[in-house]
Specification:
CATH topology: MetI-like fold
Oligomer: single chain
Order of helices and strands: HHHHHHHHHHH
CATH superfamily: MetI-like
Helix content: over 70%
Mean pLDDT: 88
Number of strands: 0
Shape: globular
Radius of gyration: 20 Å
Structural class: mainly alpha
CATH class: Mainly Alpha
Number of domains: 1
CATH architecture: Orthogonal Bundle
Strand content: under 5%
Number of helices: 11
Length: about 230
């Protein structure tokens, strides 16, 4: 308990002192995970809604791949992204390995199947005739998709929170493709692992508490947006 209490005090101390390194790590964590979540949202919701509304050969195989991707181990993602971005890999000439962009790419690969799978389920659980009713009222296909998304906004927002939670807390892929470089690719998760390895448990706990606080604040904001117009 003393160790946990020391971690709490250290977290408060680092935040109150506005420690430049900690603030930089926190901001980089938020920026990387925020960008990855936004891109994953566009890709995942688009894929999920499209699969829910369209029927075509191979659709079930794609859904099976998405469902498999929802549980994809981050270290496997890190391995594949590293191979693709390695200097001898297909995209090695871009020099993205061990950069924040590489972490964003890895996190997109992790989050997109999660958001796509949950979005697919959200649309499929709407009343079967709702699509036809909307079209019969004169809506075009784009308006129909928008209205269906609005109707399923609660589970869709849950998909966003699940995607964000899946990437802001992951460590394997980030450290493999980012390298944990001080002031450049070091995020809260990789910094926590580093300080734990050094035996600095108070600092590691402090960084862990800051990560939890960051996750809570973001999810609280998303929950507010999700619940403010909750159907009665």
């Amino acid at each position: 308990m003393d160790l946990i209490w020391e971690g709490v005090k250290k977290a408060v101390e680092l935040l109150l002192k506005l420690d430049r390194e900690v603030l930089g790590i926190t901001w980089l964590t938020l920026k990387i995970s925020g960008v990855a979540t936004l891109v994953s949202l566009a890709l995942g919701v688009g894929a999920g809604v499209g699969l829910a509304l369209k029927t075509f050969p191979g659709r079930r195989l794609i859904i099976a791949l998405i469902n498999t991707g929802m549980g994809l181990p981050p270290v496997v993602v890190g391995l594949w992204v590293t191979m693709f971005l390695w200097r001898n890999g297909p995209f090695g000439s871009f020099g993205l390995l061990y950069t924040p962009s590489a972490i964003v790419i890895a996190q997109i690969v992790i989050a997109t199947p999660i958001i796509a799978g949950l979005s697919l389920t959200a649309i499929q659980h709407l009343p079967p005739n709702l699509k036809l009713q909307i079209l019969s009222l004169g809506a075009n296909k784009l308006q129909m998709v928008w209205l269906l998304a609005k109707e399923a906004r609660l589970p869709l927002m849950a998909a966003v929170m699940a995607g964000f939670g899946g990437i802001v807390s992951e460590i394997g892929a980030s450290i493999m493709v980012g390298g944990n470089l001080k002031g450049y690719t070091r995020v809260l998760t990789t910094a926590t692992v580093m300080e734990t390895g050094r035996g600095n448990f108070d600092i590691a706990l402090a960084l862990g508490f800051i990560l939890l606080l960051l996750s809570f604040v973001i999810n609280a904001l998303l929950t507010h947006l999700q619940q403010r117009e909750r159907p009665r």
